[in-house]
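Give me structure tokens for this 347-residue protein.
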Amino acid sequence: MNSQPEEGKMNTRKSRIGIALALIAAMLAATAIYVHAKQAQGNPASVAEKENAADTIAPAVEAFPMQVATNGRPDYMNNVEYTDSTHSRVKIAVDSSAVDLSKAGEYPVVFYAENEAGNVAQAKTSIEVIDPKEKIIYLTFDDGPSPNTPHILKILRDNGVKATFFVTAQWPKSLPYMTQAARDGNVVAAHSYSHNFKIYSSLDAYFADLERIEQEIEKYTGQRTRIVRFPGGSSNHVYRRYHPGNRQWIDTLKAALLKRGYQYVDWSLDSKDADGNHVPVTTLVSSACHTYHPQMCLLMHDAAAKKTTVEALPAIIKYFKAQGYKFGTIKSTDYVCHHGEHGMWPN
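Here you go.
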């Protein structure tokens, strides 16, 4: 008489065990799909299986600073990058409701990335709206960081201005100065890891060198850059040593750089501190201090031997302040200063 209830209990236990085993099997299957897809690296079948697994991971999204002239048309989508772990299609939305394109200023922008599973991520950045008639001077320093860098940073702080540093790795012990430069609100951009003109021997050589300095910038500032200055500038002739029969090779390099999402920056004003290691301060100041255009990009150097550049800097800053110039930094690929051009933004 008591066998029936016991049999019912056993059936119940078997049912619960069966459910538990099914759940474990499902979990293992999901794990197996993930591992299999990861190992397959592009096998269409395994990628499809991975996409069928439960997706709870939001896309990775990164947004970059922007610049635009007043009443211009920002290219928002050119300033966001995103990836998704399941190769899902990603929808991008932009919240630019706080932006007033008719008025100069810096405004917040938020990007939202949503994959097919409904997972959402966001990235915040800013857009700087600039009046083309506004007076702006961009102080730039090539070749550092070096033992001179902390002196330059102090002068900038004391005067309440910011600059853009196109860095190298020529003085390894000085590389940590990049951290302080970024903390102070300056921009750390790429010049070259080696500053050896052999980087112009091939596209592979150039981009290998660029990747090395990018890694250093990321190590000391926490982020990479999309702003680059070529050693010698974009109109240099040094590359002809390696491409004597191809005078357009530098144009191929520039196009390849732009295609990868970078912007190269030249200068429209030269301090002439590259003419030697002990150029007199008076010469540097007279070369640097001109107002022939509302917006100018000034070339200076942060190499260890450029001590007179450090000495000239306070007078240069004082001059541009007296002329009513604002001090800008180059943080957006929308900023264009190529040889033969001034700092202008496409509409």
